[in-house]
């Protein structure tokens, strides 16, 4: 009965999926799925593709800052369902989260049959993890990226076991899809190349052929996307500015994220940072050992270690070289499930080889560890729920934004503000009122500032919750323009300037 069909094989993933669906329903019950500035870009780009056949955001500019994959996915669902994005997005995210749970169950059951208790406890940890619930309650491309990353690990494992052209093709196609969901998918191109190159069981000529096929197929969709970006914007991935945060700042941000993920650092940020650095060094040692030793090379464990190492180095390097959103749980989340896997995969073989007394001692340690993990997750979920149950998920569907006094004024008096409106949260204005506003210029891009101040008159909307230190401040505008009128609300202000 246990192995009879999909339900018998994945009964624990089915139960975990039911719990995940209930959790997401409760989170999104008050105000629907969470919407951020990135979400508005995705929504408006998908609607533009459907209505006008061009991938452009609400400002009319072609979308190049993000890859085309996620907007195209939303467009496809728009065509097939006929529903608005905000209506079907909760269902889409629930299905993707369930896909993550089934993919995780597949990995856990890979090289050696995992104990039932281990799979159940692992999947339960994923369902109740605050970081996963946060992402899968938002309209973000990470929801697809994380699922495809796990699917990449599964297909890579299949290829390393079979080494056939068919397995290579599936492996490459999954990689290609991931690359056009997020630009960070290039990590998988590197991971896949390392896996093929370092496999000592592949003959040299075959290895060269497979490397070429993998890289050409995997990079094909992204290459088309980048060529399109260059044609419509003269830029491959949009304007990227020089980083302001140092390497140590970024490592501290990762330490802060590890503090949120795990209870063992007790809010000691530097200790968590040192742990991450040591973990990267351990990953490097494990990868080198597996490549040289080869016995356990074609295993899920090896793939997870290589992915962890490459993604960790990539994300730190990118954030240190170019200006990047401060490293947080959302950006680091692709590491979370592989990290849990490589941190616990040793338990099953050790448990099987332990005698009775050692098993009892190990059980006690693991019970305390697991209870501490869930207590930490419970506190985070309870804290988040305090606000979500009454106001909705933080973002533009939250009550604070939908019931905003500033937004209400713009809805009723938008024409009085003139045809040229700037804001520190122009995406919120469009999403909630339909009024097209421009984002304030960046304080260190002189060309943007000169164009902005060159207009004879304009309106500026400043939201308290939309404060962005990268944009020009009010004092600069007041030093160059005359303030004609001002309206102040509990959550923001509207200014009208002229020469």
How is this structure best described in words?
- This protein is mostly helical and 499 residues long.
- 66% of the residues lie in helices and 5% in strands.
- It has 23 helices and five strands.
- The protein has helices at residues 5-9, 11-28, 37-52, 69-81, 85-108, 116-127, 130-136, 142-162, 165-179, 186-197, 204-233, 247-261, 269-293, 300-321, 329-332, 336-344, 347-353, 356-391, 399-402, 405-413, 426-433, 446-454, 474-480; strands spanning 421-423, 438-439, 457-463, 482-489, 492-498.
- It has a five-stranded mixed beta sheet, sandwiched between helices.
- Strand 1, helix 21 (426-433) and strand 2 form a beta-alpha-beta unit.
- Helix 5 (85-108) packs parallel to helix 8.
- It is globular, with a radius of gyration of 25 Å.
- It starts with a helix and ends with a strand.
- 39% of the residues are buried.
What percent of the residues sit in helical stretches (DSSP H or I)? Answer: 55-70%
Label the overall shape.
globular
Radius of gyration: 25 Å
Strand content: 5-15%
Succession of helices and strands:
HHHHHHHHHHHHHHHHHHHHEHEHEHEE
- Low confidence ranges: none
- On the 0 to 100 scale, the average pLDDT is 93
Largest sheet: 5 strands, mixed
Query: What's the number of helices?
Result: 23
- Going across the biggest sheet, name each strand in turn: 2-1-3-5-4
N-to-C terminal Cα separation, in Å?
A: 80 Å
* Number of DSSP strand runs: 5
**What class would the helix/strand composition place it in?**
mainly alpha
